[in-house]
Amino acid sequence: MSIRNSTATWKGTLKEGAGTMTIGAGHYEGPFTFASRFESGEGTNPEELIGAAHAGCYSMFLSALLTGNNTPPKRVTTTAAVHLEAGPTIARIDLVCEADVEGVSAERFAELAAEAKAKCPISKALAAVETVTLDANGNHPGDEGFDANNIVQWGLGDLWFENIVYGNGGRIISEDGRTFVAASDQNTIDAVQFLSDITHLYQIHPNAQQTSSMSLGQMFETGRVAITTNGRWGVTGYRTNLPFEWDVRPNPVGPSGEITSYMNQEDCTFAGWSGSVGLAIIAGSQGEMHAEEAFRFIEYIAGSEGQVEQAALGFQIPNQVDVAMTDAFLQPDQAPANAEIFLEAARCESPGPWTQTPLYGQWFDDNWWNGVWPRVVVDGVALAEDELAEREQAFQAGLDEAWASLD
User: Fold this and answer.
1) Which of 3, 35, 165, 190 is least enclosed, having the fewest CB within 10 Å?
2) pLDDT for 65-121, tens place per residue?
3) Residue 3 belongs to domain spanning
């Protein structure tokens, strides 16, 4: 493939100096200054050129997809609004596209528009720029004319409530597992409310109706959702099935600036829920009938050789640290590029709250999944603070009964 060259020269200090940018072999040459970039001075700036490149790339890619759909466009016009914010950093790029094309449904056009956004080479190069919810007209939530019923891509997909709670310094139950604390812990209340607000207030997460025909997992795999939550076990399928480049990042830290890390480790920078796999010989099973062979199999799977084999498949973090820290797990020649984040997750994320109490499903599930979750998160008809407070006694009574069952 070709190599394209551009040149920029800057002379002088940051604020008093000036520069010139030249594209290719002099096809464009323009001045830029501190004022033209950070204020409203005359001249161009790097962000405008990034925007032009992104808009041009997107228009060409969408045209190719529409042509491949047997609906070639007469015209595709794209405007890229590049948001330069404090840092300085490019916080986001808004793409607004208008196309003159016949014979394609609005739904199919939305699918192709999302695919072009994910696959055009400039989008891939700008993958570090925040991905946000985008409607078919290129508008984002909060923009004038944003159409919540015609969204091409949502910013957020599946979010595990434990990750959001722990990532905001909250807890569902006390550390000894005896007290339901979610109703009185402000960090937890705020985290649960956030899970509702992303759908009903900010409109960056699809609602129940919008996921009725396609799961959040499917929406991520087809580019309809930009960010999702998954474990290492999802890597094998992603490597095979995702039609776009992807990577992993740590769970977000909430506005409290606090986290609930495993064993309260102070050097952790993020938190969440971490699952694990256990192997056992079940009484009355074929494993018990062939106990010696079953034990040797478990011994192999849990040993370094078996851990390397499982890591090679991409779905497990080795339980042996010396294996996990090697390329046998990190696999730098394959996605994700930042696999070391999984290692930090294994160290800093906590087991789910169900590991801290007996009979968790009996005292927790009905009040949470049939009460708090649908009313606050799914339907948005109640505030997290009110619903948790209303059910606090029921949660605690069930928890007390669970512990009493051990007496």
Assistant:
1) 3
2) 999 999 999 999 988 888 877 667 777 788 888 888 988 887 888 888 888 888 888
3) 1-44
